[in-house]
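thought: user wants a sequence for this fold. calling inverse folding tool.
action: design(structure=
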């Protein structure tokens, strides 16, 4: 079973959620061999709840995931923390939405939640918690206290960082970092545009139906990461198309 653990279903934070765009994304995910994705949309994207309103109206939700265009879509969220860095939190729909509600006062830059508080709030509920792109120049995680980082389940081998830094140089940073903390590394494309699907994929040895089963398989290392030989082309093409679409929509380029 193949899953991408870091994906977005909106072009940018300031765009509306489009069902047509979502359908196109899921169809392309399937075409790229994915059986499932974790929908880790930014917690401070505009009208976050619209995503779930549309999905609830159009797709069945069972075992903790939606079945959309032939793809299992696990609910999740990407949260900015006060100390700098992003955390991916994946879990049951109701738990994700409850956490998003609690985060409402922390959505503006300068008001982001403290890392330890986010960890405390997400301790229960069976969440899978991943440290996103820990060696990205603008939003790293490696500077944070080890005792807090060890509370995460895994760290993100991110398609965008592989593209910008190179696979071997990036692995030379993230692998010993994760090993020192006793945590696994999982893959995520970090896509906002469908061309990026398939750049980084987690291939699990068996099927899973719940986030808890997914967590157990990750902890057992019952998977391997596949990095596409076309990653550079995929990410570059996605970046170009995303920039053109944002320009057409008059969205500033710094808005992800």
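)
observation: tool returned 256 residues.
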């Amino acid at each position: 079973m193949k899953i991408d653990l870091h994906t977005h279903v909106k072009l940018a934070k300031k765009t509306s959620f489009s069902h047509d765009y979502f359908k196109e994304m899921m169809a392309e995910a399937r075409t790229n061999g994915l059986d499932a994705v974790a929908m880790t949309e930014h917690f401070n994207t505009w009208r976050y709840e619209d995503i779930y309103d549309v999905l609830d109206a159009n797709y069945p939700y069972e075992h903790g995931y939606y079945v959309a265009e032939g793809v299992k879509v696990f609910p999740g969220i990407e949260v900015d923390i006060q100390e700098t860095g992003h955390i991916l939190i994946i879990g049951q729909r109701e738990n994700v939405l409850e956490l998003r509600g609690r985060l409402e006062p922390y959505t503006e830059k300068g008001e982001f939640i403290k890392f330890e508080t986010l960890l405390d709030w997400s301790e229960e509920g069976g969440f899978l918690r991943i440290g996103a792109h820990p060696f990205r120049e603008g939003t790293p995680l490696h500077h944070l206290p080890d005792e807090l980082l060890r509370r995460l389940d895994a760290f993100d081998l991110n398609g965008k960082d592989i593209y910008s830094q190179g696979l071997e140089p990036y692995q030379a940073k993230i692998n010993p970092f994760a090993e020192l903390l006793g945590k696994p590394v999982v893959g995520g494309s970090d896509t906002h545009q469908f061309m990026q699907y398939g750049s980084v994929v987690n291939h699990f040895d068996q099927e899973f139906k719940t986030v808890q089963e997914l967590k157990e398989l990750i902890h057992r290392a019952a998977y391997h990461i596949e990095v596409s030989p076309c990653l550079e082309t995929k990410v570059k093409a996605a970046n170009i198309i995303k920039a053109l679409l944002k320009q057409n929509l008059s969205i500033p380029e710094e808005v992800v």
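thought: summarizing for user.
answer: Here is the designed sequence. The chain has one domain: 2-249.
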